[in-house]
Amino acid sequence: MIALGLLIIAVGAFCQSSSYVPINKVKSWSWESYWIVQGIFAWLVLPLLGAQMAVPEGHSLCELFSRDPSAAGMTFFYGVLWGIGGLTFGLSMRYLGIALGQSLALGTCAALGTLLAPVFTGHAADLTSSVIIGVVVTLVGIAIIGIAGKMRESDQTLSASSSKGEDTGQEASTSGAGLERSFTKGIIVALLAGFMSACFNIGLAAGQDLQFEGVAPMFASLPATFLVTLGGFCTNAAYCFYQNGKNKTWSDYGKTSVWMNNLFFCLLAGALWYSQFFGLSLGKGFLTESPVLTTFAFCILMALNVTFSNLWGIILREWKGCSKRTVTVLVIGLVVLIISSFLPGLLE
Q1: Taking the model in full, what pTM does it have?
Q2: Angle formed by the axes of helices 183-206 and 69-96, to 10°?
Q3: Half-sphere exposure of 119 (CA within 13 A, CB side)
Q4: Which helix (H) or strand (E) holds 281?
Q5: What span, in angstroms and rounded, lies between the C-alpha atoms of 20 and 309?
Q6: Segments in the chain below pLDDT 50
Q7: What is the pLDDT of residues 33-63, one digit of tens each?
Q8: How many helices (DSSP H) and strands (DSSP E) are in the chain?
Q9: Is-contact 146 102, C-beta < 8 A?
């Protein structure tokens, strides 16, 4: 049963890592327009449908949330904070580069999401030595992949300079100066993005009692998941609609010729993205006999997200032109992440 739970979480992580592929098929829409439309499916429609699976006949979500409005309100609030984390995630890569920025943000999210959720909800006793060791190993794996990403940037820059010649290389160097790299700003933003993103798991913990009696464990956390994504939807909607007004892109929604195409790919992207947290809920339902893995499940999901994202990078040839040394470091990081997913269960 535990193996099945881990497999379900892994499938959800793989789907999430694939969720940005359909976005490339969206036509004639600005970022803010397609982002909020896919968000309607990812953070609103699909989570609502998922939550209905945890509602017995004759009852409703409103009834459930009204039983404990304080828990429901805090769960939604953490969702709002999580939404801010998603919006600031890109800034960390702007200041630090993709490799270091992504590694710091996701590492912070995985660690804090796992460690703070029990602390904030009065279950600090769940943080056993096995869980803490698992978090540390996960951070080591993400750090190694971050190093590999930095090495990749150096390899590909050197390769581009060699192939284009000295003059072209100078032009590329000059154009790269506009990336606004700032280590100090980057560290602050990456840590902020990671903490805010970790609020997703804290929100799930805050809403862990928002469930009807007798509901199957695999569906139990879906109502809380809906409240968290609803909070994130509100944050993203406010920002995207602001950008629509600022950039004068409200007309995107009136381009009827691309509506069917864009709606389909936004729906697909949203479904793939939501699969990670739907899979997390289902998977945790099979981990109930292992309290350690139940506590560590969010960290497993984040670790596998990083693993599959980098595997997609290999498939899409993003590591083309890298030295064998760089690829070796990447593989070591991926192996460490995979090991971290099973380690707490072995140490239990």
Answers
A1: 0.85
A2: 160
A3: 10
A4: helix 259-285
A5: 10
A6: 168-179
A7: 999 999 999 999 999 999 999 999 999 999 9
A8: 12, 0
A9: yes
